[in-house]
Amino acid sequence: MRNTTHLSQAQKYADAHAQTQISCTSSHRNLRFKQPMFLNFQLTLVMLVMLTLSGCSTVKDYVMPAGVKLDWESVAVSVDAGANRDYPLAIDVVLVSDEALAQRLLGMSARDWFSGRNGLRKTYPDVLSIDSLELAPGESLTLPGKRWSGRRVAAALVFADYLVAGPHLARIDSLRGRVQLAFGANEFTVYSLEK
User: Fold this and answer.
1) Which helix (H) or strand (E) is 140 found in, with range?
2) How far apart are CA 182 and CA 194, in angstroms?
3) Contact (CB, 8 A) for 130 and 90
4) How many CB atoms neighbour CB 5 within 10 A?
5) Backbone Cα Rg of the chain
6) pLDDT at residue 165 tops 50
7) Lowest-confidence range among 46-55, 63-72, 104-113, 176-185?
8) In angstroms, rounded to a whole number, what is the distance separating the alpha carbons of residues 107 and 36?
9) I need a surface site. Which of 113, 152, 165, 184 has the fewest CB within 10 A?
10) Whole-number percent of the chain with pLDDT over 70
11) Which residues contact 112 (CB under 8 A, 6 or more apart)?
12) Band (11; pLDDT cuts 50, 70, 90)
């Protein structure tokens, strides 16, 4: 009787060990099959994220920054004698790094700009840069271009606060070299002298 009991216990142990071995082997097989499927899922997920990011403006801006890179050697400003009915002329050079805001500003007159610039400056401190000048008729000055050169902008604009009504606005981001701002009696012209 002892032999049978001992044998049946040995048989149970052998059966349990065989069962565990089969279970471990089958779980390893399952891991082998699951691992490539898991890797395929990871690859698919990574590709999906990359495709999504390629449409993201942040990635595009990092790879290809938006806007025009300014290349100004200098900016010469001159106001003709007798201009603006012989009153000093307020002039703003405005750099905008946001395309939507640039379009909005391009639709404004100088009068609208000068009455609303402080509010715009507070609302858009990170995308709006304003350099303000005031020259009397007959005055001129030349500013070094390094002040602006190398910056990327959606638009660079000049507003002049003439006493007479009118748009008094010019876009100057496409100019290169020595930029010239020439203010006449009631209007102004902009041009550049290439390097």
Assistant:
1) strand 140-144
2) 16
3) no
4) 9
5) 36
6) yes
7) 46-55
8) 58
9) 165
10) 66
11) none
12) low
Residue 77 pLDDT exceeds 80: yes
175 HSE (CA, 13 A, CB side):
23
Is pLDDT at 174 greater than 60 in this prediction? yes
Buried residues in 163-172 as b, exposed as e (16+ CB within 10 A): eeeebbbbeb
Per-chain mean pLDDT for the chain: 81
Using CA atoms, how far residue 77 sits from 5, 54, 86, 111, 165, in Å, is 111, 43, 17, 20, 21
Look at residue 71 and tell me whether its pLDDT is greater than 60.
yes
- To which H or E segment does residue 84 belong? none
Sequence-distant (≥ 6) Cβ neighbours of residue 193 within 8 angstroms: 177, 178, 180
Under 8 Å between Cβ of 94 and 157: yes
Contact status, residue 155 vs residue 108, Cβ threshold 8 Å: no
* 155 beta partners: 96
Among 72-76, 85-89, 146-150, the minimum mean pLDDT is found in: 146-150
AA letter at 42: Q
Nearest-angstrom CA–CA distance, 161 and 87 = 11
Q: What is the 3-state secondary structure (H, E, C) of 31-71?
A: HHHHHHHHHHHHHHHHHHHHHHHHCCHHHHHHHCCCCEECE
